[in-house]
Amino acid sequence: MSVSTQHLGNAGTARERAVWAVLETVMDPEIPVLTVVELGIVRYAHWTPDGRLHVGLTPTYSGCPATEVIRRTVREALDEAGYKDAVLEEVLSPAWTSDWLTESGRQKLESFGIAPPSKAVASPRHLFGAPVIRCPRCGSANTERVSEFGSTPCKAHYRCVSCLEPFDYFKCI
Amino acid sequence: MSEATVEYLLRLGDTSLVLGQRLGEWIGHSPALEEDLGLANLALDLMGQARLLLTYAGEVEGQGRDEDALAFFRDAPQFKNLTLAEQPNGDFAQTIMRQFLLDAWQIELYEALVASTDSRLAAIAAKAVKESRYHYRFSSGWVVRLGDGTEESHRRMQSALDALWRFTDEIFASDEIDDQMAAAGIAPKLALLQPRWSARVDEVLREATLQRPQSARYPWHGKRGVHSEHLGHMLTEMQHLQRTYPGAQW
After folding, report:
1. pLDDT digits (tens, 9 = 90+) for A35-76
2. Are B182 and B196 a contacting pair, CB within 8 Å?
């Protein structure tokens, strides 16, 4: 279990943890091996004094078309679990970062064939010098970037020089 | 005050919307698949920023206009984008140069807006600045590759720069809206951002072996609703469906 999942989900009360358990069944529509919790886009789930459950979701990218699908599937999952009056809120700040991807999320990405983002975006080292991106298929560090952009807003396009396979890299932002 | 805030939010939102729409025109026409995807991804981020900004503008205005009403049911004089954003795509050089000049601007602007006294605008900026930095990496990379490339690519980049430079004065031409926003701490003083933008742009142009043109001081006023002839044509296409079938949904 990753640090951020523990921090955000498991620290809550029993009834909040039950909501997180429901949210952990909702998959990302574009990367169907990841749950929305592993992606780090669920920011909170708590009850306000007026007795209503509030769930905060943050978009990965401002224009990510998956955001609305995610909102809808989260809504459906909560409805089905009996949280019909839950309030879904869009959280913009602090802005999502690929550092919020959980450890289990990173592992699932890699076994799905998507190279996980290099860690610690906040580090100034990330801005200079290219981080080593390993091929998710053969593990080679001998890879090259084909394009800064890929099949979805959160991915870039890479190629492995060793096994010659193209692959997606989860962008660091 | 809130009237000025609406105007200011429209300037930011419309610049992202119009630039995003222009980039979308490249889909299926780019020189290579990777650039096609790249420009479409930039467009998507810009559309996302525009939605956040226009939604907020509509809320502050308080007349029930949402993002769609603002995007599809205003005419050119009601659009407040920078004139540079609406300039036609031209060749790939012109598109990249327009993008580079505006990416450099959006980075400086959003970095400053993170400290805005308006917390909603600060949150939008914190999100957008990360995207702008990524866009800038793409556009400045191409400016250098093409500027310091072949004789032909250099010639095209220089001519794009010469054609577009005259629209850059407008970015920093402060008017009463900018002054009010700066006084309220909602937006940064434009005069403070200019040297930072200028230094950023100069560094890349130098590496790209391109000559920065003399300032033309032509009074463009896109952000006051006075546009070049290109915006109207663009809006005709962008708004056609909603104007013909108002309220149409996917």
Report:
1. 999 999 999 999 999 999 999 999 988 888 888 899 999 999
2. no
Question: What whole-number distance in Å separates Cα of residue A72 and Cα of residue A79?
Answer: 10
Enter the ipTM: 0.77
Q: Do A96 and B127 touch (CB under 8 A)?
A: yes
pTM: 0.89
Cβ of A95 within 8 Å of Cβ of B38? The answer is no
Verify whether the Cβ–Cβ distance A157 to B37 is below 8 Å: yes
Range of the domain at B94: 2-244
As a CATH number, domain A3-99 is 3.30.300.130
To test the contact with chain B by mutation, choose from A43, A61, A155 the residue with the greatest count of B C-beta atoms within 10 A, namely A61
A63, A147, A148 member nearest B44 (Cβ): A63
Give the B window 33-52 contacts with A, CB below 8 Å: 34-35, 37-38, 40-49, 51-52
Residues in A touching B126 (Cβ below 8 Å): 92-95
Q: How far apart are CA A10 and CA A13, in angstroms?
A: 8
Calpha distance B47→B53 (Å, rounded): 10
Dihedral angle sign, alpha carbons of residues B88, B92, B95, B98 = negative
Average pLDDT, chain B: 95
Within chain A, all domains assigned CATH 3.30.300.130 are found at: 3-99
